[in-house]
Backbone:
């Protein structure tokens, strides 16, 4: 292909191949299949305000333009990254002029989650009175990023990452229909087409960008531009999987890792750990979360888990990548495979709740510290029973809660791992406490 493209005339392949009708649009069958509300609305030109929520390259902007084309509405586009209230006002003024002429306006806002509350509020009266049909596009969860007032006035459609088959169809359409690729006789065999579609990770724009770069880097021979595997590998090298630190995908993946560990599936746990590492997540973040898993889901069923998780954290800090990543993987595999208990996690939550509800109850006199003569004379530490001087080093019947609170049981070990033994001991000690207190009541 020619390397002498005039800059101001150049349009990326992804833009040149943007579909203008549903017949050219591939994927999103869950919202565009037969008898689906969105497809019927597009085909009949029945406008309503909406938000498209989905990963990059899934067709959000394209669908908005197709809707405008099918409904013969004016299409005004704003980017929340670059626009402010002044731009919103100008777009509304244009829409009001068109409305006076009897024409409908679709106001498309890309990355709408980047608008603040006041900017989002600016759309409300004009959506309400029909001046505009609002279409927003966002990669972030609208429930968290958009005002409830705006959400109540739109219908949210969730777009998914494109499957490999849909990406292949998009690439084939480009090879067969883009004038520059066709004129250069660009060829890509089926195996490499599959490879490119897979590496593109459900992102149509990424796939078309890869194809265009690969075609630019391939020399034409005998009137043909045959893209090779080495070129594809060079173009797609270091292509990271979708991750989006701090966004929904980030939290979904760490949730999947945590739940795989809790569910005792080391294979899935290692997969999600690898996905996060491959996507560019800070391994130290994963290490910290693994330590949390060791306490929350393994606990005293296997206390070695916490030590192994801490060791993995320290190992990564000392060795870095990739050696340290292996230590984290070792901890993940161990935690997923060992005995599970959330007894301490549940007990801590119950104890914290009791502490918040009980207020500032005083420490009983017998449990108070008595470092001075005055404090001893005031009764601090009086009648305290030193456990080591008691039979079996246990002061049966002694109370350690505030007066008036009564005895509470927060920690209930499970019958798994080391907690089997802990449970047996606590059951015995709690039984002795009960017997001693019953005797005291009889007296």
Residues:
């Amino acid at each position: 292909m020619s390397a002498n493209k005039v800059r101001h005339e150049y349009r990326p392949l992804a833009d040149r191949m943007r579909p203008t009708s549903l017949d050219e649009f591939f994927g999103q069958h869950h919202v565009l299949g037969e008898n689906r509300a969105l497809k019927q609305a597009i085909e009949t030109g029945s406008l309503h305000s909406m938000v498209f929520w989905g990963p990059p390259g899934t067709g959000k902007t394209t669908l908005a333009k197709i809707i405008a084309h099918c409904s013969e509405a004016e299409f005004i586009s704003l980017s929340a990254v670059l626009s402010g209230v002044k731009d919103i006002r100008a777009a509304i003024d244009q829409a009001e002029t068109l409305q006076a002429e009897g024409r409908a306006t679709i106001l498309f806002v890309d990355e709408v989650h980047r608008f603040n509350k006041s900017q989002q509020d600016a759309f409300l009266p004009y959506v309400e009175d029909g001046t505009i049909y609002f279409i927003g596009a966002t990669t972030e969860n609208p429930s968290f990023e958009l005002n409830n007032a705006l959400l109540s006035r739109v219908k949210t459609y969730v777009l998914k990452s494109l499957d490999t088959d849909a990406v292949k169809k998009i690439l084939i359409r480009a090879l067969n229909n883009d004038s520059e690729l066709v004129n250069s006789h660009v060829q890509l065999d089926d195996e490499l087409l599959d490879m490119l579609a897979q590496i593109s990770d459900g992102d149509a724009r990424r796939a078309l960008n890869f194809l265009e770069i690969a075609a630019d880097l391939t020399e034409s021979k005998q009137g043909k531009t045959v893209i090779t595997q080495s070129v594809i590998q060079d173009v797609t090298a270091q292509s990271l999987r979708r991750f989006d630190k701090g966004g929904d995908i980030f939290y979904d993946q760490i949730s999947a890792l945590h739940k795989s560990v809790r569910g005792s599936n080391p294979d899935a746990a290692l997969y999600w750990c690898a996905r996060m590492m491959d996507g560019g997540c800070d391994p130290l973040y994963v290490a910290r979360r693994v330590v949390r898993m060791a306490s929350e889901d393994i606990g005293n069923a296997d206390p070695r888990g916490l030590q192994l998780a801490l060791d993995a954290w320290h190992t990564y800090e000392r060795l870095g990548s990739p050696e340290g990543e292996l230590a984290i993987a070792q901890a993940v595999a161990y935690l997923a495979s060992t005995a599970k208990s959330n007894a301490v996690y549940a007990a801590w939550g119950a104890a914290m709740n009791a502490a918040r509800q009980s207020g500032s109850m005083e420490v009983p006199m017998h449990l108070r510290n008595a470092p001075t003569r005055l404090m001893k004379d005031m009764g601090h530490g009086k009648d305290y029973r030193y456990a080591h001087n008691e039979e079996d080093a246990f002061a049966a019947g002694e109370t350690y809660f505030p007066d008036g609170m009564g005895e509470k049981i927060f920690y209930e070990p499970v019958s798994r791992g080391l907690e089997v033994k802990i449970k047996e001991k606590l059951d015995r000690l709690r039984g002795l406490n009960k017997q001693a207190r019953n005797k005291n009541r009889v007296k």
Residues 1-8 have pLDDT under 50 and may be disordered.
